[in-house]
UniProtKB/TrEMBL annotation:
HAMAP family: Coq4. It is found in: Mitochondrion inner membrane. InterPro entries: Coq4, Coq4_euk. This is Ubiquinone biosynthesis protein COQ4 homolog, mitochondrial.
């Protein structure tokens, strides 16, 4: 499967211009998923190359690269029919309770090769699976904490920039909660778990959620302090 034919080749200065414009735009409006995506692509090539090499050394990673599964409705819709205790059902509940669609992710546009474009696409599409595994909400604290985990897993500069941008927008109570509870947890959780980009999640949808968490070394998010 070829990923998104509308890729745009960029020179180095064009990449820098897109990265700077995307960073400024995302700081002004963090809801702009397209700008955050562009920032991740234009600053993340070395990180995605390292992820690609790790995937090639992993049995499940190689299977992912060979078969190129997509986290889109056509391929993961069966999760909505799985038993309540399963990983797939937990993902479906997470998506349904927020009226999210697996098809909402913006396409990858600025990767140079099909292989890197797929890795970037995969990283983007498993985001909500990671939300499910770690039990993180989609509010500002939850998204910032997941970006810390993504940075620990992939070393994408965009992730750390997103955390910095998020903390700027925290109120005093949120900032204190994030720094005291969520940041240290996220660093530990991101380092302790398995290489999450080498997990073929779709093959594990029918397994018990708590069992897959234990198998992959997932530490669920701390409970919201009272």
């Amino acid at each position: 499967m070829i990923i998104e034919r509308a890729r745009v080749p960029l020179s180095r200065w064009q990449q820098a211009a897109v990265a700077m414009g995307s960073a400024l735009g995302a700081l002004v409006d963090p809801r702009r998923a397209d700008l955050i995506a562009a920032l991740g692509e234009t600053t993340g090539k070395p990180a995605f190359e390292m992820v690609l090499e790790r995937m090639k050394k992993s049995e499940e990673g190689r299977a992912i690269l060979l078969e190129r599964p997509r986290v889109v409705s056509e391929q993961v819709g069966h999760a909505w029919d799985l038993p309540e205790n399963t990983f797939g059902a937990a993902y479906a509940k997470f998506m349904g309770s927020r009226n999210f669609s697996p098809d909402d992710r913006p396409p990858v546009r600025f990767m140079e090769t099909d292989e890197l474009a797929y890795v970037a696409t995969r990283a983007r599409e498993v985001h909500d699976l990671w939300h499910t595994l770690f039990g993180l909400p989609t509010n500002l604290i939850g998204e910032s904490a997941l970006k810390v985990i993504e940075f620990e897993q992939m070393y994408l500069p965009m992730c750390m920039l997103s955390v910095i941008g998020g903390t700027v927008r925290f109120n005093e109570k949120q900032r204190s909660m994030f720094l005291k509870h969520y940041l240290p947890w996220a660093v530990r959780a991101g380092r302790q778990c398995t290489d999450l980009m080498c997990v073929y999640y779709e093959r594990h949808f029918s397994e018990d959620l708590e069992q897959v968490r234990r198998k992959w070394g997932i530490i669920p998010a701390p409970q919201h302090p009272k």
